[in-house]
Amino acid sequence: MLHADSIGISFGTRRVLSSARIEASSGEVTGLLGRMGTGKSTLLKVCAGIVQPDSGWVQFDGVRYHRARRTALARRGMFYLGESANLASGMTLRQHFDLVEKRFGAGDREGVIELLAVSDLIDARIESLSTGELRRAEMALALLRRPLCLLADEAFRSLDPIVCETIGTSLRRLAVEGCAVVVTGHEVETLKPFLDSVTWVTSGTTYSLGNVESAWKNERFTREYLGALPVA
Amino acid sequence: MIRAYPARAFLLWIALHAFVAVGSGAGIVAFSTSASLALTVIAAAVGFFDSRRRHEYTLLGNLGIPALAPPAMWAGTILVLEILLRAMTAIAGGSPA
Known about the structure:
Distance between the termini of chain B: 34 Å
Largest sheet of chain B: none
Shape of chain A: globular
Structural class of chain B: mainly alpha
Largest sheet of chain A: 6 strands, mixed
Distance between the termini of chain A: 35 Å
Helix content of chain B: over 70%
Order of helices and strands of chain A: EEEHEEHEHHHEHEHEEHH
Shape of chain B: elongated
Helix content of chain A: 25-40%
Number of helices of chain B: 4
Oligomer: heterodimer
Number of strands of chain B: 0
Number of helices of chain A: 9
């Protein structure tokens, strides 16, 4: 569904990514893990067409882009959730739902509201929502859109365990419906149960570590990122 | 959200012309061509920063709407209003300020 390869990008004199690669398949949740500042968010933005790389390409839904455009990707079914500011502050969640349904057709609004428990938030203005409420509202919008691919940056940051569970369940539901989900984050133990595969971002490149079990058994990944020796 | 851009630009245009009319005491007057073009550019900048302040760009992106849409709609609205005002002023026999 989503495949980006040979991605290189610099900001000024700083080389953030030199040859990064990511592949996300329909029906799977891929964890994009790595230390802070290694380029996870940048790689997601490249995949979403928000940032243009110096080299490499992005292939989405069978079309290869050397300069992926955000609008073209979004129209084909790409949905991006950044770390913050994903919803318009002066609007309500209901207005967001209306916009998405008007643009892409009606979705399972009632089901989404129930799953994310956002019935009390539906007519509240976005700027009045707490961090956890905001994250649930953003995920509700993503579910309503029924994207082919969801890119979620730091999806679990600063959230209560119960909200993490709700968000994780939503990611799984999207995957079950055929969406290719890519999620970043540092809350590895919270993320772990919801992941199908792991891609490690380090030193400007990426390593596909396979499923969660094999990733956690990878000695270098464990030593350099998880920070603990693997359990025998 | 998209329909709000022309409305907001219209309010800015009305406010600006009202301010100039009160300040100059000459009533509503059409601006010179260069002033109108400058106002159009300023409107585009206001549109860009207003949408940024309202955190609209990620939503627009997810809707498949180009990031240029807000500044373009602000600028377009102002340009059309300036042209209309000049036309009306010309018909009434006045000259641009």
